[in-house]
Amino acid sequence: MTDPDTPELPDTPAVVARLVANHREFLAFLQARVDSRALAEDILQDAFVRGLGKLETLHDQRSAVAWFFRILRNAVIDHQRRQTVALRRLDALAAELDAQPPAAELRDAVCQCVGHLAATMRPEYAEALRRVEIDGIAVKDYAREAGITGNNAAVRVFRAREALRKQLVRSCGTCAEHGCLDCTCAGGCS
Q1: What are the residue ranges spanned by the domains of the chain?
Q2: Looking at the chain, which terminus has fewer C-beta neighbours within 10 angstroms, N or C?
Q3: Which residues of the chain have pLDDT under 50?
Q4: CA distance 7 to 2
């Protein structure tokens, strides 16, 4: 005989079935709080995985839905915190890129094949490098020209630099390790 004041311990299959039955409500809850349905679905899937791993903390299977809504609220808060941190880091990167213009003598001494390799990159990467690195405009000004956010521009410049660095290593080999100064690579830069 069970005591009516004692909470019913969770029956895992029953709790899972109850949570799955409320999938639409959970998704609607998340979608109202985040940018997109896809993001809401990702957060929901992650919360299901985390929640199923913590079913032993559930003391009453009748409160499973309310318990899971608390997990979802916490997941949204965690997502927003991560997004805020990422935006701060991108802002710092944009400020750093704006604060470090290349020295004129270094820019003039760099291997001529850099221009040739940049032309083989994705057009938006090549344009970002040309405007920021060669023309010397600030990342925020490039962002305005390109019609994108400052954070997006900073990421684009960063990725363009990384792509160019990888192409330089493939093309120039050891010359690229030394900054392509006095280059003797097969690209005919010397």
Answers
A1: 12-97, 102-177
A2: N
A3: 1-3, 6-9, 188-190
A4: 10
Contact 43, 68 (CB under 8 A): no
User: Looking at the domain 12-97, which fold is it?
Assistant: Rna Polymerase Sigma Factor; Chain: A (1.10.1740)
This prediction's pTM: 0.46
Give the type of residue at 56.
E
For the domain 102-177, what is the CATH code? 1.10.10.10
If you write DSSP's letter for every residue of 33-85 in order, what string do you get? Answer: TSS-HHHHHHHHHHHHHHHHTTGGG-S-GGGHHHHHHHHHHHHHHHHHHHHHH
Q: Which residues contact 185 (CB under 8 A, 6 or more apart)?
A: 111, 113, 171, 172, 173, 175, 176
- Cβ atoms of residues 118 and 164 within 8 Å: yes
How many CB atoms neighbour CB 75 within 10 A? 20
Residue type, 81: R
pLDDT given at position 2: 47
Give the total residue count for the chain: 190
> d(Cα 124, Cα 167) in Å, to the nearest integer?
16
